Amino acid sequence: MLWLYLHFPHLLLDHIRRSRENEGALAVVEGSGQKVIQACPKARAQGVRAGMRLKTAISLVPELGMVRADHQQEARILEDQARWLYRYAAHIVLVPPDGLLAEVGSLQRLYGGLPAVWQTVEQGLNERQLNAWIGIGHTPLSARLIARTGKGECTADKGHILRALGQMSLMAAEFEDKTRTRLQRIGLNTLGEVLALPSNELARRLSPETLAYVQKIQGNRADPKTPWHPPHYFRQQIDFVQEVEQSQGLLFSLQRILSELEEDLCWRQQDTDSLLLVLQHRHEEPTRLRVRTSGPEHRSETFLNLIRLRLEQQPLRAPVLSLVLSIRRFLGREAGAGRDLLGETQDLNEAWHTLISRLQARLGEAALQQLSPQADHRPERAWSASEVLRRPGTRLPDYTQLPRRPLWLLRGPQPLTAAPSRWFSGPERISGGWWDGQRVHRDYYIAQLDSGQLAWVFRDVRDGWFVHGWFG
Amino acid sequence: MSEILNTLMQDARVWQGHQHIRTNQSAEPTGYQMLDNQLGGIGWPRGALSECLLNAPGIGELQLLLPLMQRLSHSGKTVFWINPPHTPYAPAFAREGVNLDQVILIHTEDEGDLLWTLENCLRSPVTGLVMVWPGKLAAREIRRLQLAAEAGSNVCVLFRERRYAEQNSPAALRLELAPGEHQDLRVNVLKRRGSWPGQCCSLAMHHRADLAFQEAPRIVQGPWSGQAG
Description:
By secondary structure, chain A is an alpha+beta fold. Chain A is built from 15 helices and 19 strands. Chain A has three domains: 3-24 and 63-218, Reverse transcriptase/Diguanylate cyclase domain (Alpha-Beta Plaits), CATH 3.30.70; 234-333 and 350-362, DNA polymerase, Y-family, little finger domain (Dna Ligase, domain 1, 2-Layer Sandwich); 400-470, no CATH class. Chain A has helices at 11-18, 41-45, 54-60, 71-85, 108-111, 114-127, 140-149, 158-166, 177-186, 191-195, 199-205, 208-218, 247-268, 300-313, 348-363; strands spanning 3-7, 26-29, 36-39, 65-68, 92-95, 99-103, 133-137, 234-244, 270-281, 287-297, 320-327, 331-332, 368-373, 383-386, 408-415, 422-432, 440-448, 454-460, 465-470. In chain A, β17 (440-448) and β18 form a beta hairpin. Chain B is built from six helices and eleven strands.
């Protein structure tokens, strides 16, 4: 087995930098807000160093952007990277807080050699604007140690790897402080010297744990790792250094995660029809925007347009600290029907979904309705309105047996103010609803009013006359 | 004749009333032969606005569009109803053979939304027919809609009050609708492309309530007592 380790020296910083529009100096400060932990190149150029006190850093760079380190957030970002790496490798192990381990021995044939694997990963890192140190080792631990020195080499040769390990200092080999002191007292300074010791001596003189550690580096002892599996949902978060007040600023960042979503969906060969966008505010409840498309969709452009429409309709209530995009509903992808080989005819099905989604995003989902007849004798219950859904090619039931009804139904019966000029047919008695308390007991007539309108009028139990519909 | 006039005539920039020009504009037949004849044998213009001006519902105005709705809804085109004054009654349309899966009802809150919705519907290739009850509209907005309609190739019918008949409008077809004596619909062409307006016809609409055409009503003595109401 051959392992590839990715060490992200400043993951949080990279994560924040890539979703920023302006390129100001940026630093990550520790939880208590006292010390700078990571600084971006621009900040470093102006003299900000890791480990510096925050006050010093601010006096050096007054406009320094600051982000507080948050372990939960770091874990989440790391998982995002694992999700991306999962496209290239199947066996992935998370090494919090800043490492990813992937088994690459089995990938060499697929990619055509180790250098190709290395190159693929490196290219992916560049595309994602992430800094990572890559290391390859024959055991998980050796890959990690090599990666963390930043001197990883693209080799599968065990001897070469062991030589690289051998030159490593005890500090870089990550022995515990106590063990390291003891080793130094014995007179050992590099990992190679420790590795050369006979194992039973090492166990007796130091401790069985140290032996286990050394053997795991060498590969003489099993070091089982449980593989990570990607969750069945998509979730991406953007944290803003400065609060965003304009929805335009959100769109810029959304563009990137939506294109990541598109890639993710393409890779899964799936579509989705509902996105949840949560905007976090400082003092207010988060805003939850649910954006729906009327049909399965995966293109980032469509999603972006819908979100833009929603944001135009619904201005931001308060400045936004961070936004989370999550998708939990995935649909299988279908080949676009009705599209010919050259893509010349327009896909009407797709155009339909685009139009309906646009309208729903601006007007609200309740503004669009579809009508259908219902089996009930009472005219106001003989129809229903529902949310718009594409019902693919259902065979229409035969409705020709339905009784003759007017094309217009009033929203509620209106009192008849003047006597109709002509009576045509009737009465048709409609009586029902005793079973659900909405009792109706009416005699319906068709009559023409003085204005020439042909009306559907009825007389109810209390002898009142009402217009209920127009024969439009 | 002056030279300027001659040039104009030769350039064919002036339409002369005695020439009947067959428009090559695409159109949808109305389904009423008599009306089609009056409209130069074509029907509802596609890619342009049509206006129906009427005072009150219930005179057969939907019946006028029903053949078109039936045809479009079965050919997979969507029929949009925007801000209708009453509810289109689903059982009645189902009985008439309109595919209700292709009928979408839209309610908009303000004028901005209405115009936006209309423009989007008109430009989409899935739309077959848009029926709008716009309420008040400035001439400038109708012009905007006419441009949107030209971008697509579907029928758009605006239902407006008859008092707007006096105002001019950029719509390609304007019909004034009034109830006739025998439950028929009198259609007066106020404006059409390619020819003089002013044609009148009367379309039999009594079948919309299953009334046999008859001089005297079937119920001679209505149930209405003289003093009621």
